[in-house]
Amino acid sequence: MTESVSKPAIKAAVEARLAKRYRSEARFRSLGLAAIFSAVAILVILLGSIGMQSLPAYTANEIFLEVDLDRDLVDPQGDGSEVSLREGSYARVLQNAMREQFPEVRARRDLRQLFQLYTALNAPRLMDEVIEDPSLVGTRYRFRMPLSDDMDLYLKGELLDQSETRMNTALRAAEEGRSIALVSDDAGFAAMVENQRAALRNEAVALGASADELDLRVQAAGDEDVSALVDRIANLRERQQGLLDWADAEDGVFRLDDTLPSVIVEMAGGAYKLDGVSVDGTRATGRAVVQPESQSADSWNLLVVDVPESRRRSSDNQLVWSRVLRDRGVIEEHTNRYLFGNADSREPELAGVRGALHGSILTILIALILSVPVGVFAAIYLEEFAPKNPVTDLIEVNINNLAAVPSIVFGMLGLAVFINVFGLPRSSPVLGGLVLSLMTLPTIIIATRAAMKAVPPSIRDAALGIGASQTQTVFHHVLPLAAPGILTGSIIGLSRALGETAPLLMIGMVAFIAETPSLDIEGMTQPATVLPVQVFLWYDGAERAFEPRAAAAIMVLLGLMISFNALAIYLRHKFERRW
User: In CATH, what class is 349-575?
Assistant: First the structure.
């Protein structure tokens, strides 16, 4: 009776244990899948954020100008020689072409702002094109050049927050002394005035909150001297009341100045900058930035730039000129050929990754030539031929330790030995390749030894058994079977070296390099930089336009590293043998 009762109990206990084990395995699989999905999600977020940040760098707004290559300006000696062409005034040629677009711009300050729509470095570019084709002298030539970095970001919607409202009401313009009066039939400016008043009230509230905070500090100060705080409070209260009076004015004209969001009216191909609006919103005054084709229009565009002109680098004139040139078709957005066709530049619109890309290729090529053969043969000797004694044990320990040494230490070694002792040229690919090869050697040696250890001992025994020497056994049998692991380890080590920055900073590859090194023997000793250092330099740049270019350089670097790793996986699968 006891046995008949205990068997079902034992069976139930076994089934319970099995169910518990199955639940544990299910939890483990779920945790594993969650870890994989988390890693993939983080990777997607990382690449997506960098990719989105780099999008503005792949296109560029370019100015297509019809320039008059007057012989007196570009060929002062009149003989068409290269010496004469290099003495030409190409900056004047570009300035004349810009003046043709806006003949109404005459004031020196306005002309200076107009010529800032492009960098002065475009004049040498025009000179190079004329020297390459001297037949252009005396002709009218269509020259393309990038728009300034700030205006490029503005036209892409990346620089300033603004609102555009299309008004389908009649608007008339008339001169009133030195100003222009704009009259709208149905209070077209009313909504804008209310928004401006709201901005003033918000600023007044912020000033009041600051004054209240200082009041609390004065009350808690006790016997301390608080005269400076009292003066600041009085100043804040005065400014607050001034803003409130400004916002609540009910008579006359609501004044607009450079401390408020800029208001621009675009009509009939021209534009006006407003400096005052009647409180009922039917009438405005301002000045013409670009003369319109007509003094009246049935529809017009009201543009409000949220950031006041006094708080930004770009002027309202430059914003208007850029928009007008775009509407005229003089400014067009195309693929950014400068990003992959130029080396680094002080001007973001002309900066590119070509110089850093060439430097990275040359540097990693030298590291490949030096580190892979030395690392593989050192690993072969240590694994197959070296006697087991304290000396080889010490060598193996040091190799393992070197693999964990911070990369900047190798940079210090390169600075102390290759530059100070051997006098190699600073900031050159050959120097960078030597430093990276030293850093990569331990990784290659360890990976090669691990690949050779993975070859079954029976392979060696069979080769030795049929009369092969130890050298023949290693090079004819063991090494071919270990090749997938050796290639994988070497490529991964080199891809890691490709992304290193710290050791290269120590040997001077952080220098500004405006010339692209040639992909030949001579280029190995020319000044160069690499992609990681270029990213570092661009993110450290003051201009905002360097940020998307730095992100684009990261995408190029990631593309190279992913290509290296894909090559490693392909070679492993191609040459791998199973036994």
Answer: mainly alpha
